[in-house]
Amino acid sequence: MGSLVPPSAPPYIPPYELVGDGPHRVIAVHGWLSDRAAYAAVLPHIDRRAFTYVLPDLRGYGEARDVPGEFSTAEAAGDLLALADHLGWDEYSLVGHSMGAAVVQRLLAAAPQRVRRLVGVAPVPASGMPLEGEQWELFAGAAEHPENRRTIINLTTGNRHPDAWLDFMVRHSEQHSDAKAFRAWLDSWAREDFHTEIAGSTVPVRVVVGAYDPALTPEVMRQTWLRWYARAELVELPCAGHYPADETPLELVRAIEDFLMARG
User: Fold this and answer.
1) CA 14/CA 219 separation, integer angstroms
2) Which of these CATH numbers, 3.40.50.1820, 3.40.220.10, 3.40.50.1370, 2.60.320.10, describes 16-261?
């Protein structure tokens, strides 16, 4: 008689884009308000001879817009491990923007021996974000109300960018994310605290923040990232807010790749 236990489902491999063919492999993860196109403005400027970047779409975004799931940072870490295995990458560096930084920290916690270096860009700490009252309502309502997304983007970049750019960012966010998944992701990246799983890590870490980001400030980084990672350093981009990839792409590429190429 055959076994009554069904075979295990194959691991889920998120849709992805590969850029470059260099020996240093990098997993770059997007944030809450965009899919992998969050890195589009920096791609013309990366060193494709030194690096190979993989840019995945998290569940609920881009080509994975209709993929079901828990929409959590822990689930995403498992998906990215499966992606790394699929690519045959035993070792890699990590880059994460905003919510994506919480995801790559989960990946670090799950497989620390595989991570060379980690860069958090305007990064959510592993302790989540203390959104309360009207601020929580603003973010929670962004799934259904595009004006909330616009307000968030405008506030977190210092209320200083053209209306056309804000409109583009909101339109792309709406068209490339599933509303229910988008809302579910908020509960994970904002409310989960897993910092004890990464505290004391000796993986080299660089935290990149924008001077016009009113929430994820240098002081927040000193109280979280720089306190928990033994080899962490902070870089502030003076002309950026929460979206350095769009606001100051050349400066961001330099901040990322100089660090990833460093020795030690």
Assistant:
1) 34
2) 3.40.50.1820
Give 177's DSSP letter: B
pTM: 0.96
Q: Which amino acid is at 43?
A: L
Tokens describing residue 207: 């935290």
Check whether 70 has a pLDDT greater than 50. Answer: yes
pLDDT for residue 159: 97
With cut-offs at 50, 70 and 90, classify the pLDDT of residue 7. low
Contact 34, 168 (CB under 8 A): no
Alpha-carbon separation of residue 131 from 44, 76, 187 (angstroms): 35, 22, 11
Q: Helix, strand, or coil here: 153? A: helix
Query: Which backbone phi and psi does 2 adopt, to 5 degrees?
Result: -75, 165
Residues in contact with 45: Cβ distance below 8 Å, sequence separation at least 6, in sequence order: 249, 250, 253
